[in-house]
């Protein structure tokens, strides 16, 4: 779509590029559109992508409406201070192999709102403290969005971001951070207007203590693809969160208390693509009063969601969409949610065990989904019992013995399962042990009695028995 638009514009608008293929140095051409593509997009775009620049091109134009400068895929290793460029609102310097950036490099770009420095192998040393400085402290940069993704950042100097009071969106995803150092936490915490923070794919296994406490306006937090093995308690300090993404982390279970009452503003929660997520416990989501969208899909080991996972959660008011497709769910409790009032329910690609506990799904819920969202019913298939394996849930409704919990329905392997064998083994051991104990007790009793001088009666009884036996034999 975007490509089509660009091609269209390309054919309509001024088109002038340097075709000789040599690296471009400063030139005295004053019209940048002689060197780059100037596209009447919204905003107006000067596209110098892939133009083999090794330095900033001459930028002396005076554009009187908002515009965007695209300098990606060049070889501008050194970023000097930009000249005054009125109305430049977005600057993309991605993929240049930047080696250094001058102090206050962007100070003259008074209208700049978005800056992209992605894919540059930037380190904290390159991004030193005064890179983002404005012309002076009274005139900080008005930058609202900064993209530092796909670099080589292990940290950030503590004051690097202090000149960006208006920053609302920060992308640091895909950097080898591992453990957010104190300096970096400080740098991020100075951004009091920050609303969106992307820390995905940073190898994080925890968040620093109280990391999010100062970010009072943070609405969107993305921690996808890290190494978090539990829901970090620090997310509960981000009181304004409306969106939280924990996709792809090695979390094994979601429990009560993972999401506290402090997260009552969260409207959308993503817990998908988790390789080892196995269960969701009772009251796991009970504190999320405003949850409207829950995406919990593609978790190959997620076999169960506790039927009380949403208890105390005022459902009638909020939850609208739930995505549970492609998990390992075998059953689902009818009472877990007011299923029929939800706008979107996706339960496809789970190995459903079609017994009596799932009858409601086939008879009540699926027909409803079929009417409202037919595409969400294409793959609702039984994995058990054997007789129904591979059949759509809706196709076995009305079949004799369908959705039955009565015998002869016997779950696979019950008879000779390891558990049964273990029980039998334990039983046999117990029997042998009690026999031994019984024999030993008998033996001791005999001994004790003999010590107490009661042997006589025993012997007598024995001899009587023997006599009796002899008599019988003789008779
Ligand atoms: C560009 O500058 C060079 C010297 O740097 C000069 O020789 C050339 O004439 C200039 N070209 C134009 C079009 O001004
Ligand atoms: C550029 O345009 C602005 C108005 O947008 C004007 O104030 C300024 O003087 C112009 N500068 C130059 C160098 O032409
Ligand atoms: C990235 O920068 C580091 C030093 O900060 C260097 O060792 C490494 O080779 C660079 N990687 C690439 C792909 O340029
Ligand atoms: C920051 O935002 C405020 C409020 O929107 C605005 O008044 C101010 O001019 C902005 N600062 C800069 C440097 O753009």
From TrEMBL:
InterPro entries: Leu-rich_rpt, Leu-rich_rpt_typical-subtyp, LRR_5, LRR_dom_sf, LRR_TM_domain-containing. PROSITE patterns: LRR. GO terms for cellular component: plasma membrane. The chain crosses the membrane at residues 415-443. Pfam families: LRR_5 (PF13306), LRR_8 (PF13855). Residues 1-19 form the signal peptide. The keyword Transmembrane helix applies. Keywords: Leucine-rich repeat, Membrane, Repeat, Signal, Transmembrane, Transmembrane helix. This is Uncharacterized protein.
């Amino acid at each position: 779509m975007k490509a089509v638009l660009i091609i269209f514009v390309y054919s309509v608008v001024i088109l002038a590029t340097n075709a000789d293929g040599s690296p471009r140095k400063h030139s005295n051409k004053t019209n940048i559109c002689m060197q780059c593509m100037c596209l009447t997009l919204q905003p107006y775009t000067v596209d110098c992508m892939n133009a083999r620049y090794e330095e900033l091109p001459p930028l002396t134009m005076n554009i009187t409406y908002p515009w965007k400068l695209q300098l990606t895929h060049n070889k501008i290793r050194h970023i000097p201070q930009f000249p005054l460029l009125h109305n430049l609102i977005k600057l993309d310097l991605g993929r240049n192999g930047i080696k250094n950036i001058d102090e206050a490099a962007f100070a003259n770009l008074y209208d700049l709102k978005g800056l992209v420095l992605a894919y540059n192998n930037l380190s904290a040393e390159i991004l030193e403290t005064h890179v983002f400085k404005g012309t002076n402290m009274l005139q900080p940069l008005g930058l609202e969005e900064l993209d530092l993704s796909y670099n080589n950042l292990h940290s950030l100097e503590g004051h690097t971001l202090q000149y960006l009071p208006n920053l609302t969106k920060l992308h640091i995803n895909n950097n080898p951070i591992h453990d957010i150092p104190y300096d970096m936490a400080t740098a991020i915490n100075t951004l009091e207007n920050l609303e969106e923070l992307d820390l995905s794919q940073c190898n994080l296994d925890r968040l620093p203590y109280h990391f999010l406490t100062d970010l009072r306006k943070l609405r969107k937090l993305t921690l996808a693809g890290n190494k978090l093995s539990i829901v970090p308690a620090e997310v509960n300090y981000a009181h304004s969160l409306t969106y939280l993404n924990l996709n792809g982390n090695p979390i094994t279970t979601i429990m009560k208390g993972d999401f506290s009452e402090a997260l009552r503003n969260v409207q959308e929660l993503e817990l998908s693509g988790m390789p080892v997520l196995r269960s969701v416990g009772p009251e796991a989501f009970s504190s999320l009063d405003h949850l409207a969208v829950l995406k919990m899909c593609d978790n190959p080991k997620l076999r169960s969601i506790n039927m009380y996972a949403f208890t105390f959660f005022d459902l009638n008011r909020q939850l609208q969409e739930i995505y549970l497709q492609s998990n390992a769910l075998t059953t689902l409790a009818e009472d877990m949610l007011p299923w029929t009032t939800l706008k979107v329910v996706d339960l496809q690609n789970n190995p459903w065990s079609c017994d009596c506990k799932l009858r409601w799904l086939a008879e009540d819920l699926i027909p409803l989904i079929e009417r409202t969202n037919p595409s969400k019913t294409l793959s609702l298939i039984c994995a058990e019992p054997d007789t129904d394996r591979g059949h759509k849930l809706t196709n076995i409704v009305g079949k004799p013995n369908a959705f039955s919990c009565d015998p002869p329905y016997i779950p696979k392997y019950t008879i000779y399962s390891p558990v049964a064998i273990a029980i039998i083994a334990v039983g046999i051991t117990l029997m042998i042990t009690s026999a031994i104990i019984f024999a030993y007790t008998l033996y001791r009793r005999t001994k004790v009695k003999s010590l107490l001088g009661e042997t006589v009666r025993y012997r007598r009884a024995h001899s009587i028995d023997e006599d009796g036996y002899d008599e019988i034999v003789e008779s």
